[in-house]
Structures are given as C-alpha cells and as structure tokens.
Amino acid sequence: MKVACVGGGPAGLYLSILLKRQDPSHDITVHERNPEGSTYGWGVTYWQGLLDLLHTHDPESAAAVRAHSVRWRDGVARVGDLTTRHRGDEGFGIGRHRLLEILADRARALGVRVEFESEVTADDLPAADLVVAADGVHSALRTRHAAHFGTRTHLGRNRYLWLGTTKVFDAFTFAFVETGHGWIWCYGYAYDDAHSTCVVECSARTFTGLGLDRLDEAGTSALLEKVFAGVLDGHPLIGRTAGAGSAPWLTFRTLTNRTWYRDGLVLLGDAAHTTHYSVGAGTTLALEDAICLAGALRAHAGLGPALAAYERERRFALLPVQSAARHSAQWYENLPRYIHLPPHRMFALLGQRHSPLLPHVPPQLYYGIDKAAGRLAVARRLKRWLGPRVARTVQARSQAR
Questions:
Q1: How far is 231 from 78, CA to CA, in rounded Å?
Q2: Which of 100, 246, 305, 331 supports an S-S bond with 217, CB 3.0-4.6 Å?
Q3: Is 371 left (phi over 0), alpha (psi -120 to 50) or beta?
Q4: pTM reported for the whole predicted model
Q5: Residue 202 clears pLDDT 50, i.e. is over it
Q6: Among 268, 210, 214, 219, which residue's Cα sits nearest to residue 239?
Q7: pLDDT for res 167
Q8: Is residue 375 scored above 90 in pLDDT?
Q9: Residues 103-125: what's their mean pLDDT?
Q10: What stretches of 352-376 show up as alpha helix (H) in DSSP?
C-alpha cells in the first residue's frame, strides 16, 4: 500500500512506524511543512499506560521515549500563600522536540521517507492509496471537505498561554494567584533536567483587567514572572523558540467531526478531535489513534471497512475522555466556586474535576460524599464501573445536540 501522511507530528510519525513494522513493503512518506527541528510547544505529558502500550507495539521507540523522559509522583497545589502536596500516579514529561526527533529517526530507520518543508495542499493531494490528514486542529485537508466531515468547534471561555521556564518543577504543580482583577493560575511540569512547561490560564475578565491584551511578549513575561514569583523562584518564563514568533494567547477549540474519513482520506489526532489541555491527554490520544488505525488496516482486507472500524473504535474510546476534558475545562471556567475551600479540599476537587456530578453538587457536600465513598470498597468498585458509562452517555448526548 502507498501511504502519504500529511503532518509530521507524533500521530503521523508513529503511524508510519507501525505500518512499516507490519509490512516493510508499504511505501510511506511523511510530509511536514516546517523545517526539521522547528516545532511549537515545550513538553508533553503521559502516563505509564501509554508507555506500556508503546512498548507493546514498538519496543525500540518506547525505550528511547522512556530514556529521554522525566517523571514525577506528586502533585502540588499553591493557593496564595498556602500549599498542599498529594501523592498520585506516576507521570512522565518529555520535550516535544525530543519526542518528534525520536519518532522521525525511528521512522527513517524502518524505511519511511520523512520530508520536511514539504507542504501538501487540499487541492494537490499526493497520489496514494491512503492519505492521512495528521495536520492538526487547523487541518487544511479536513477544512477542504468540512461539510462532509461535519466539523464542529466550541470555543472555551478562558484565555491561556503556553510557555517554558528554566524552573525545574519536582512535581506537577498548580499555582493559583488572586489579583485585583480575579484569579490567574499556571500548570507547571518538568520535561527535561533543565526546563519545564508552564501553561498560564485566566478568565477573559482577568485577562483584560491585567492589561494582558495590550502587552507585547516582553511585557507579558515581566508581568507573569511577577505574578508567579512564588513558584518560579526567580527563574524566567520563555516564549517560543527563536524564529517561531511570539507565543499567542488562545481560547481552546474543542473540535469534533461527524465522520473521520472520506474515500481514501482519513483524519488522525487533532485533525479528528481535540481534548482540553488540562487533562494532559492530547499526545496520548494521537498515538492511540495511530495504533488503532494501523491495527484496523492490518485486520481488514478493504480500505473502507478498515477506516470504518478505526472510526467506530476510536469514537467509542474517546467518549469518556472527551467528557472528562469538557468537565475539566468547566471546572477552571468556574474556579471561584472552588478556590476558597481549604487547600486540601480544593486540591481534592481539582482531582475530581472530570466528574459530571460535581457541577451539580455543593463543593463541600461533594467532598464529604467522595471521602466517605473512598472508605467503602463497594462504593469504590461502583464508582470505577459506573464512571466511564455515565461519561460516555453524557458526552454522546452533548455531541448529539
């Protein structure tokens, strides 16, 4: 089979690796419009489950990813001058640039052509049996056929900014700071031994009240370094890498599609769906898409049945994650509802922000119920069984509107 992957992100590169491992005779080219080594973003997060999955499907690249990752077990929440620390599941961080380098090198070693500065337009698709649109949330290939795909987007209310810092956090860190114009907060996590990602978020009211809508990059960094001085310990905030332009303030776009394929064109990763960054699942979901698509192409003789199976399986698997992401985004959009709780309670509800029940129960009552349920084995088992089913139902109904 001849395959053209449009987009050299984690999804497109990993799919090319898997397809080559399945059948070395596949003719596969990955087209990336940007120069090699120029990528947006800082670090990405993942958990042990993804690492296990990667090891199952390609032990060599999984070992390289693990070797270049940092890990943490604790979560830290700072609310003003108060701090609480919580032991959780082991998490990992890796630089996006390093992850792409690992996957590109592995793909080349298997015989994939990885072509940088190779732009593919919607009106000039490569001649291939399968064209994979792995070109992100603003996918030109998907946009060209938006009516067919049934693309829908929903903009969140908060503003956010993706930055780096030389402060190396020893835990996944949340810092909430109250200003005269409302709350502003950041998420910080290390991704190598010298850098961390720092995502800043606030409401639209706080954004304009602080004058962030009028500041240039230098002014923004100076203001945010002052606001988050207590967590940065004198370290600077860093915008995009040289030549990549200023880091923009954004509102998150939740994207869904009614269908994920059209003839020999299929959507992968952010081109097919997005989930709010606060659940830290974007890269994991993109790689899981690639694994599922490769498996469907192996299991089905015809391209049509394979693409239908891929869409069906991934759409079902995504329902609880999309529900969790939607409720997580809403938790932050309604931060004043939770922020004045004692820090350990606020942090506990931060961990429960994916719950579809939390927005409808007074926070103090929800905390008490959840704590009581945690002591009862039967309640814990019921929660683990019921949670994904409720989330799928809620998310499916929200998408049907």
A1: 8
A2: 246
A3: alpha
A4: 0.90
A5: yes
A6: 219
A7: 97
A8: no
A9: 95
A10: 363-374
